[in-house]
Each structure stands twice: as C-alpha cells, then as structure tokens.
Sequence to fold (410 residues):
Amino acid sequence: MVKTLIPEVVVARLPVYIQRLNQLMREGRESVSSQEMAEYLDVTSAQIRKDLSFFGGFGKQGMGYNVINLLESLRSILNLDRVWEVVLVGVGHLGQALLSYQGFSHKGFEIVMAFDNDPAIIGQTFAGIQVTDVSEMQNHICPRGIPIAILTVPAANAQEMADQLIRCGVKAILNYTPVTLKVPEGVRLANIDPVLSLQTFTFYL
Amino acid sequence: MVKTLIPEVVVARLPVYIQRLNQLMREGRESVSSQEMAEYLDVTSAQIRKDLSFFGGFGKQGMGYNVINLLESLRSILNLDRVWEVVLVGVGHLGQALLSYQGFSHKGFEIVMAFDNDPAIIGQTFAGIQVTDVSEMQNHICPRGIPIAILTVPAANAQEMADQLIRCGVKAILNYTPVTLKVPEGVRLANIDPVLSLQTFTFYL
Fold:
C-alpha cells in the first residue's frame, strides 16, 4: 500500500466507518451492507465500496461486510492496534475537559503529559495527570518522542507552542485554537475550532 | 447564487479563509495574493482563486485581494453579518468549557440557553447562562426558533437529544459526541469528535 496514493479524504472517512461499525457491533450485528452503512453517513454506498477498495477486498458481492472483520482491518490500516501517547498543551477550561474525557483511552490514545504556564494550574492534577510548567516542555517531550499533541492554548501562544512541539519531534497536532498554524511539510495538522463548523452552517441557514 | 450548486468542500473552506484574513487584518495588512494565502493553508493558490470565483470577482489580476473587502464579502456570503443564537445541550466538563469560551460571541454566535439532566448542574450558572432542566427543553426552544445546537451529552443520550432538537426546529447540530447521528435531510450536521481526527493522523505516523 503506497500511502501517498490514497486520497486524504478517503483516509479521513475511515474513522467514521469505524465509529459506525463499533455501534453496529455493540448492537450485536454480524454483517452490514454498504447501503446500510451509507444510511447513517454522509456518503453513498458506492463511495464506501470505492473507499474500501483502496485497501483490498472486503466482503462478498451480495453478502455485505462482516462487522468484526472489517472493524479489525480498518483499525489495523489506521495503526490503531497499539496505544498512542499524546501530550496536551494548555490546561484551561477546554484542556481540563479533554484531560477528563474518557473517550481517548478507549480508542487507543493516552494523554501522558500536560503543560501550562499559569502558576495556579502548574502542579495541579486532572484525571491523574499532573500539570508541568510549559517552560520545561522540551526537556520532557523531546527525549520521549511523543508523536501527537493537542493544542488548547490561547490564540496568542498557539504558533510558538506549535513550533516548540515540532522541534521536539511531534508529528501531528490537533489544533483547538482559532489560529491558522503554519507547520512544515511532514507534520499533520487538524483544526477543530468549532467556529469553523458553525460558520459553514450559516451559509445554508 | 444557487447554493446547492456550490460544492460543500468549497463552503467549508470559506471560514478558514476568513480566519486567515482576520489574522492578516490584525497584522495591518491591506492586500494579499492568493499565493500568500495558500502558504498558510492546506490548499493551492489556484484552488483559492477557483473557490472564490464561485461567488463573483474578487481582486484584480496581479494586485491581490483587498483584505478588508474580501473579509466583508466572505462574511456576508456566510451570513455572518448578524448574531446567531445557539443552544447547548449537556453541561459536563466540555459543555462548561464551551459556555466559558469567548470565541463564539466574537465570531457572531451566542449561546443563549443550556440544558442538562443532572440535578447538581441544573440551576447553576456558567458564564452568565443558567442551566435549565433538559425535560423542559422543548418548551424553551420550540417557541424561540433557535437554529443551531451544540451537543455535548453522553453518547447514550445523543440520538434522542438530537431528535428532540430537530423536532423543535433546530436546523444545524455541532456534534461533540462520539456517535454517528442520523438526521433528516435539510438538517446540517458537523462532527467534531477529536478521536476522528486523531485516528486519521495515525494512518500517516
């Protein structure tokens, strides 16, 4: 599989398929057709079949997909059959909420460190993670080789913190700040500023 | 402008252009070329010019775009020259963080009501919003015609709450839950489950 030949939009849909398959598994379903998958998702059944065809053959004509097999294959394709360490930078209201969120560890992601620059926050523990002074961030992250960071700092600090993280080997940043970050090639960036989604809604309302 | 003829991916990029233009305006810049816009964004300059061409002529060949004019045009295209009322359902850690977030009101969105089912939370005030019992939600939302909802409830309640909101006329849902929601045609849905983004990263790491 040559990863760069697979369109990014296809890769971005795989976690959505996993989410849906997980729900089907919890409902005790053994198989599912692409038509039925498409009902819940914002794609056509043809698109689902085409997306999956990038990664080999799944399911038999007219038989649908085996839920558990497809789930395991997709998890393996996305390298989710291991635990990924994550660092969180910025422990304000949102950072604290994310530290308390149970959904990461269940899905293979573990926040292992958290940093802030506020003396009132440094040293406090949230969901088992003690907050470290951000001025010591490089000493802590660089040697450990943590690949993923969640950025929940104020806008004014966002680019500087991203730069520091990247210098320490972070390869992917989940950006909660309302800032357009500049990152070098090879570093993945996902923006989940809720305002971007809200502003897309209003075009249609 | 026939809205349905404009690809959704194009519409989804406009808020990102607005974000970048806002930064340029704060830096005191008067004009910007599509090349320079593209540097910070994950698109080519040709794509930016093509996206903008859906909405009419902006800028002159070789002159770049006037930052303020383009910003105002894009804000008008996205109906952002007014304040949009938003309701928040689920006032746990994340809901509280979103209520405290200053970024919504600055961008034209105002959370005007919040609901929860926890007796310990109902009646409490966060950032000026008093939490109402979710069992009274329909009485409050239906008459007021609030178009947008933010859903931050536990997974088990997500679909039921979405259904209630839609029955009360909500036309767009920002879904923070890790659930694939089913919504009728005509209702906009954006999923910002951070795990979906993290799972896309790991394909490339």
Notes: The two ends of chain B are 42 Å apart (CA to CA). The first strand of chain B starts at residue 31 and ends at 32.
